[in-house]
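Changelog note: in this version the structure field was regenerated for every chain. One regenerated record is shown below for reference.
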Amino acid sequence: MTNNLLNSGASSLDSEQVDAQGQLPSTQDVNPSEGNSQTKRRQSATSASKIYSKVQQLQETLERHQNDRQLVILQDFPDPDALSSAWAYQLIAEQYNIQCDIVYAGTLSHQENIALVKLTGLPTKRWSVETTKNQDLSVYQGYVLIDNQGTTTQLLPIVTEANIPLIAIFDHHSSQGELK
């Protein structure tokens, strides 16, 4: 089962929106004369509920894949958004004993992206198409797409051909259609 975490509309939560048990605030005590305020609270509660649901999905997915080794595939020319999101996923996955290799097929095309990787020690690997074809991909139990949906990476056909299952997609861009 693939978790598609596209366009989650994630926004920051404050402690008043969701309590420690994941309960949303009640709107029953809202004064009807507040009008628009009540609508905003409901929208906020709905947004918080969606975010909490996505967090639960991620946790369940990570629990199902404990002790796996995964490829974290970025777009061919990763930007700071992709790089930092992949690293965040790797750090979270480590809590579930999931080993991640962050890979991309193109190049780090801007000086700020190169600096980000060098200065932070961000653990990325450039895999050309030829390099990937020569890799032993059987060591991976799944792959994750971060900041792309598979349409901006040359690695997807090779990984798909190796029958590595897609675990999840994390992307904030508009849906680009189903993966084939």
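Spot check on this record: The helical segments are 36-64, 80-94, 111-120, 129-133, 156-161. Confidence is low (pLDDT under 50) at residues 6-30.
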